[in-house]
Amino acid sequence: MDPQLTSLIVPTEEVSQIEECLNHLVEDTGGNYALLLDKSGQVIAAQGDGSRQDITALGALIAGTFASSREVAKLLREKDFRMLFQQGVRENIFIALIEEQWILCVIFNKGTHIGLVKVLTKKATDELASVLERVRQQHKARDEVLGSSFRTSMEDTIDLLFRD
Amino acid sequence: MALINVPAREIHCKIVYYGPGMCGKTTNLQYIHSQVSGEHKGNLLSIATETERTLFFDFLPIDIGKVRGFQTRFHLYTVPGQILYERTRIAVLNGADGVVFVADSQRDKLEENVRSLRELAVNITKQNKKFQEFPVVLQYNKQDMPNALPVQVLDRYLNSLHWQRFEAVAPQGKGVFDTLKAISKLVISKL
Questions:
Q1: Does residue B75 sit at the A interface (CB-CB below 8 Å)?
Q2: Residues of A in contact with B63 (CB under 8 A)
Q3: Is B96 touching A (CB cutoff 8 A)?
Q4: Cα–Cα–Cα angle for A38, A39, A45, nearest 5°?
Q5: CB contact (8 A) between residue A151 and residue B189
Q6: A104 within a domain of the structure (yes/no)
Q7: Which CATH number belongs to the domain containing residue A29 in this structure?
């Protein structure tokens, strides 16, 4: 099977390492929130201020911004822009790419210096890149994770839900 | 690439509605949003121009609920159809697990459909995926228009790969859920 079509399965141990890494990033920068996304916009893990709403939409928009900036980069004959910074009145967001697959975002306010965020994000992307590498190396069969009857149950649920 | 988060017991899949300008991609999402009950859907997010044309994408998260202990979510996106936005379409297509190609059945739109489908094939291939094996479902929309081409003619020009295809009238919902069911099942079968 084409590896591009198989799923990325993130096991328990790796997710807890990711969460720990995000947690350190929030604590050490004094930031508000850290988020790890798949390049398709799906949220893998998030840490920080628990009151933040609508993480799903945030993930989709940030991944869209990143994918769009990559196309801009190509027009400028760059491979991609590996980091993006968006500055608001109250909050800022710093976004970094991890190995073409994941996107790390840190949301912080004016109490935190951008230089610190940059340095610590760089450290975190290195750590997360090695976690990603381990995730990629695992070849767990889908059935091992989901169970063999998953597909039939899923089809029944889809039939029930998707109707006028 | 679908994402399976084991400790959170979550599965996320990305489905993109692709097709030429004004073929009804956004209308598909609007209809789905209007029919799916509240606990199963998020907000429909649209980044559109002042004239309601899609500028970047529409986004609708659908939560199927728990299946065999796994919370499953489909993220539905549309691309902007206008020719001008090719680069934006590439960006939205990034990481898609499946595509619904919405064709405008009207006779004078056939060339635009063919061009858009060709562009889709190029863009999927650029992501190092084999287009022949990539999950695609076809929707022949606007079948209620007086100048709509019959399905057999549309098949000849658009369906050489024999995908599942559905006739549709998206504003009335005809064919919308059949299409969504087909692509969801296809994506799940490739997990």
A1: yes
A2: none
A3: yes
A4: 20
A5: yes
A6: yes
A7: 3.30.450.30
pLDDT attached to residue A139: 66
Confirm whether A3 is domain-assigned.
no
Q: A142: pLDDT confidence band, cut at 50, 70 and 90?
A: low
- Chain B residues whose beta carbon lies within 8 Å of the beta carbon of residue A71: 87-88, 90-91
Mutation target vs A (from B67, B127, B172, B179; most A CBs, 10 A cutoff): B67
Dist. CA A107–CA A29, nearest whole Å = 10
Q: Which residue has the tokens 């801009």?
A: A72
Ranges of each domain in chain B: 9-189
> Could you tell me which of B136, B7, B125 has the C-alpha nearest to residue B69?
B7
Query: Given pLDDT bands bounded at 50, 70 and 90, which one contains residue A4?
Result: very low
Residue A58 falls inside a structural domain: yes
DSSP H or E stretch at residue B113? helix B110-126
Domain B9-189 carries which CATH code?
3.40.50.300
With beta carbons under 8 A apart, name residues in chain A contacting B97: 5, 40
B interface mutation test: which of A1, A6, A7, A65 has the most B CBs within 10 A?
A7
Average pLDDT, rounded, for chain A: 88
The whole-number pLDDT of residue B84 equals: 86
Question: Within a domain: residue A52?
Answer: yes
Could you tell me if A102 and A37 are in contact, meaning their C-beta atoms sit under 8 angstroms apart?
A: yes
Residue identified by tokens 């839900």 is A161
Six-digit token string for A19: 């969460």
Instruction: Look at A71 and B6 and tell me if their CB atoms are within 8 Å.
Output: no
Residue numbers in chain B where pLDDT is lower than 70:
none
User: Which of B1, B42, B127 is facing A57, going by the closest CB pair?
Assistant: B42
Task: Please state the ipTM of this predicted complex.
Answer: 0.84
Decide if B91 and A44 are in contact by the 8 Å CB cutoff. Answer: no
Q: Count of domains in chain A? A: 1
Q: Which domain holds residue A24?
A: 9-161
Query: By C-alpha distance, which of B13, B24, B10 is closest to B168?
Result: B24
